[in-house]
């Protein structure tokens, strides 16, 4: 289309004129400048797209790592993690309880328990100063197993403490701090999933204690926390491996380069602490609000990491993860994508519980996904959560958490997320999400009685919430930010995967772009930049749809401006000739 305009301009310019046509030439020049400026502002003349050579030449930028840090990645050992604890006299004993071992640890590490007790890993409580909410696992709800309260022995198997079985747990008792869950390097330290955080051999349950942990052996072989330590809990949230996050599962214990370029065991081999900076046992990083202490991409990669400036400008709007994590659940493990509690409680023909990949009598129906394309939303680093006191509209999908930010928020960027959907119980009389008492041997526990009404009554009572006695089920959604499983540069998204009228990855209108801008962002090109794209074809690419009518408006403007100067020039010349006569 631009060629047609240029040909038309050339034909007009070469039209015969009377003498003294300098005025016309000047006018035409001014008009041409205005037209070109307008085209640039309108976007018809596109910015230079990256060349095929530039795209293929973009390489990963690796931060310079301190050798001492890089050596302690993976599973630490006394040799690589520091002091050999097997020589300490106080550890040469058979410990009667795990609390006795903690007391031995604290005889040297005097402040460690106090430090732990000031972290969310211990309190499961967080005050968000931005939103004013008091949240954390102790208070917030989700659409997986819903809530901690009344289900403590099951949930607190991932607590960094011993014995949190109900609301009577003593958070001030230092001996209840579990040192080994983060510092074990042997792989033999096991905490059964239903024992309130107590290790095997010390639960008081014969079946769970059949293979007791050798606390002395583990204490002799402690080291710096490894990915394996962190993943012991964080990979198994929601009742199983890979269930919750989508980008965190046990495949990250020993990932290859294709799965995660930073944690690749044969490469950079990052520990979690490389990004989640830890000081005084407080680990940075949060889904609640932006944490200045956690490392961001630009702490290692500069703000202009690409050779082509067009790609760099995307970082003003997009989180790096949006292009560099094209899919999640890429490690060979499916992540749970939906959970319908309303179908729980069904038994087979013989009256036995059902337990398949897609259905469980205790929990209902599920769906799973691997290599999942994320959803994309604006996110400024702060999240809000629904609490048991918050009124909901059951006629709508209830967002159990909400990521703050929108297109007009200068601090927000477009982030990839896992959108998890569920159907869960709610108090239909008070229109609030319900807390069900699921786990336990008492008659009120749903997993024993399969009575929702009794279960909800007990769960709501555990937090002092009123229950109307009426319940129903409501559709919900929950968002998880995707920031792990960073793919190699060659696997990052290419232009056409988003900027394409047929793309199914990103909905620009849903992100708040108006119709015209959304149309512009999904232009239809004859060819998109790729390693096989020729330079001549790249130079022909334009960023505005061919079916746009904007060129007609510009053509009318050109003709009008040219006509004005033609008439004005002709009249001026004629007047001068009359005066000369």
Keyphrases for this structure?
581 residues; alpha+beta; two-stranded antiparallel sheet; 19 helices; disordered N terminus
Describe the structure.
The chain is α+β, with helices and mostly antiparallel strands and 581 residues long. It has 3 domains: 80 residues; 423 residues, no CATH class; 47 residues, no CATH class. It contains 19 helices and 14 strands. The strands form 4 sheets. Strands 5, 6, 7, 8, 10, 12, 13 and 14 form an 8-stranded mixed sheet that branches. A two-stranded antiparallel sheet has the order 1-2. Strands 3-4 form a two-stranded antiparallel sheet. Helix 1 runs parallel beside helix 19 and helix 2 runs antiparallel to helix 19. The longest helix has 31 residues. The N terminus is likely disordered.
Structural class call reads alpha+beta
Rg of Cα set? 32 Å
What fraction of residues sit in β-strands?
A: 5-15%
Tally of DSSP helical segments:
19
Secondary structure: number of strands: 14
* Whole-number tally of structural domains: 3
Show unreliable segments: 1-21, 39-80, 531-548
Helicity range: 25-40%
Spatial separation of the terminal alpha carbons: 47 Å
How many strands, which pairing sense, and closed or not: the largest β-sheet? 8 strands, mixed
Average pLDDT taken over every residue: 85
Quick one: overall form? globular
């Amino acid at each position: 289309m631009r060629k047609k305009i240029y040909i038309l301009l050339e034909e007009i310019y070469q039209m015969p004129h009377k003498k003294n046509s300098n005025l016309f030439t000047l006018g035409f020049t001014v008009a041409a400048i205005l037209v070109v400026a307008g085209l640039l502002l309108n976007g018809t003349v596109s910015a230079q797209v990256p060349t095929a050579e530039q795209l293929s030449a973009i390489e990963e930028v690796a931060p310079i790592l301190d050798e001492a840090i890089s050596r302690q990645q993976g599973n630490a050992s006394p040799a690589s993690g520091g002091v050999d604890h097997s020589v300490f006299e106080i550890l040469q004993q058979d410990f009667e309880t795990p609390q006795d071992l903690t007391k031995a640890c604290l005889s040297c590490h005097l402040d460690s328990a106090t430090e732990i007790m000031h972290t969310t890993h211990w309190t499961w409580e967080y005050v968000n100063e931005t939103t004013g909410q008091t949240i954390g696992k102790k208070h917030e709800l989700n659409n997986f197993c819903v809530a901690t309260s009344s289900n403590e022995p099951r949930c607190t198997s991932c607590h960094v403490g011993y014995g949190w079985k109900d609301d009577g747990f003593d958070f001030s008792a230092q001996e209840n701090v579990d040192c080994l869950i983060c510092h074990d390097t042997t792989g033999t330290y096991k905490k059964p999933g239903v024992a309130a955080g107590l290790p095997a051999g010390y639960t008081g349950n014969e079946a769970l204690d059949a293979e007791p942990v050798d606390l002395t052996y583990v204490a002799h072989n402690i080291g710096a926390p490894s990915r394996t330590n962190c993943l012991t809990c964080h990979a198994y949230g929601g009742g199983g491996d890979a269930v919750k996050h989508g980008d965190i599962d046990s495949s990250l214990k020993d990932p290859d380069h294709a799965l995660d370029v930073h944690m690749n065991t044969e490469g950079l081999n990052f520990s979690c602490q490389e990004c989640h900076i830890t000081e005084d046992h407080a680990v940075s990083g949060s889904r609640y609000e932006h944490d200045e202490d956690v490392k961001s991409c630009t702490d290692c990669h500069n703000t202009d990491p690409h050779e082509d400036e067009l790609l760099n400008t995307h970082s003003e709007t997009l989180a790096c993860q949006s292009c560099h994590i094209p899919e999640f659940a890429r490690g060979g493990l499916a992540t749970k994508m939906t959970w319908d509690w309303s179908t729980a409680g069904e038994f087979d023909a013989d009256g036995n519980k059902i337990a398949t990949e897609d259905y469980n009598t205790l929990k209902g129906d599920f769906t799973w996904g691997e290599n999942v394309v994320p959803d994309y939303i604006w996110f400024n680093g702060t999240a809000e959560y629904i609490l048991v006191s918050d009124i909901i509209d059951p006629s709508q999908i209830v967002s159990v958490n909400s990521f703050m930010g929108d297109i007009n928020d200068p601090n927000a960027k477009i982030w990839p997320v896992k959108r998890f959907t569920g159907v869960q119980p709610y108090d239909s009389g008070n229109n609030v999400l319900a807390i069900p008492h699921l786990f336990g041997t008492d008659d009120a526990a749903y997993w024993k009685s399969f009575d929702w009404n009794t279960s909800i009554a007990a769960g709501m009572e555990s937090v002092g919430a009123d229950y109307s006695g009426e319940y129903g089920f409501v559709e919900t959604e929950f968002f998880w930010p995707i920031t792990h499983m960073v793919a190699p540069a060659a696997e990052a998204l290419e232009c056409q995967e988003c900027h394409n009228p047929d793309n199914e990855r990103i909905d620009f209108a849903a992100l708040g772009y108006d119709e015209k801008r959304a149309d512009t962002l999904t232009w239809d090109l004859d060819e998109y930049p790729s390693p096989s794209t020729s330079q001549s074809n790249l130079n022909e690419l334009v960023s505005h749809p061919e079916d746009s009518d904007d060129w007609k408006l510009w053509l009318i403007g050109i003709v009008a401006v040219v006509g004005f100067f033609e008439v004005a020039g002709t009249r001026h010349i004629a007047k001068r000739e009359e005066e000369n006569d």
